[in-house]
Amino acid sequence: MGEFKSGFVTLVGRTNVGKSTLLNSLVKEKVAITANKVQTTRTAIKAILNDENYQIIITDTPGIHKPKTKLGETMVSTAFTMFSEVDVILFLIEADSTEIGRGDRLILDRIKESKKPCILIINKIDLVKREKLLNLIKIYNDEYAFKAVVPISATKEDVVQAVIDEIVKILPEGPKYYSDDEYTDQTVRQIAEEIIREKALKFLNDEVPHGIYIEIEKFKDRKTSKGEDIYDVDATIYCLRESHKGIIIGKGGNLLKKIASAARHDIEEMLGTKVNLKVWVKVKEDWQEKDSIVNKFKLK
To answer: Which whole number is the average pLDDT over 128-136?
Structure first.
C-alpha cells in the first residue's frame, strides 16, 4: 500500500452548473442542498471523503454570479478566497457551451492567477454530441494546462470515481485532518436550516427565493410521554417584503405547510428520529445588507 494522501480541494463554477449535485455524489451523503435555482449554495460547505488510502476535504463554493447585494459580494469573494488555500481546484463547466462565456472566463482568469493544479470537469455530457465535446475540451486546453479533463454526468457513480482518482493523483502525502466518521463540517443545525431553505426554493416562485434566509431558534431533543426520542425544532423563514411573506405562507397556510412537511421528512431522515418542526415567516427588509447576517456566509 502506498503512502496516505490528504489535502484540500475547492469546487468552483457558475451558478446552477451542478456543483452541489456533484458534491453529494462524491460524498454519497447530502451535505449541499440542490435546487434548480441560482445561488442555491451560499456558504463554503466542506465535505470529507474518507478512504484507507486518502482523505479529501472538498469545499463547494457559492456559484459565481454578478453580485447585486452585500450578500452577493460575500458569496463571490468566498468562492475566490478558497483558491489560495487548496491543493487542487475542480472547475465545473457545462458540456453545451460552445465558447468560454463571461462567467467561466472570470473563473478561468482567477485560476490562471492562482497557478494551482486544476481539474476541468465537464458536466451534462449526455446532452451533447462527441464532436462538440471534443471541440470544447480543445478550447479550454488551449487556455490552461489542466491536470486532467473529466467529462461526467454528475449523478453517475463510475464517473464520480474518475474525479476522485484524478484528485488523488495530485494530492500530497499528509495526515488525517478529520476522523473517519465525519463527512461535513456543517453542524446538524446548519444542515437543518439548509434543508428548510431547499424546500422553500423548491416550492416558491422565482422572485422570492434569493430574498430568504432561515434561522433555527430552537433545536432540542427530549423524550415523548411514551419514552420515544423526538427533536423540537423552531425555525423562522426571513423574507424581504410583506408581499413575499404572503406568498411563502400561501392560501390558508398551504405552501408553508408543504415546505415544513417536506423539510421535516428530510430532517427526520438525517437525525434518525421523530421531529416536531414549527416554522414561522417574518419580514426583515434589509437582511441582505446586514453585516450580522451576511457574516454567517463568510469563509470560516
So the answer is: 91
Residue with grid cell 456543483, as numbered in its chain: 19
Full-prediction pTM beyond 0.70?
A: no
Residue listed under C-alpha cell 464532436: 131
Q: How far is CA 172 from CA 8, 74, 119, in A?
A: 10, 30, 16
Q: Which of 221, 253, 220 lies closest to 237, judged by CA? A: 253
Are 196 and 204 in contact, with CB atoms under 8 Å apart? no
Alpha-carbon distance 138 to 147, whole Å?
14
Please state, in angstroms and rounded to a whole number, the distance separating the CA atoms of residues 288 and 39.
13
- Bridge partners of 274, per DSSP, are 230
Integer Cα distance of 59 and 106 in angstroms: 19
Find out whether 183 and 47 touch, Cβ atoms under 8 Å. Answer: yes
Closest to 53 (Cα-Cα) out of 118, 113, 1, 128 = 1
Tell me whether residue 175 is in a domain: no
| H/E run at residue 54 | strand 54-60
Cα 163 from Cα 185, distance rounded (Å): 21
Structural domain harbouring 252 = 188-297
- The torsion of the CA quartet 153, 47, 192, 21, rounded to 10 degrees, works out to -10
3-state secondary structure of 111: helix
Same domain, 54 and 86: yes
pLDDT range class, residue 276, cuts 50, 70, 90: very high
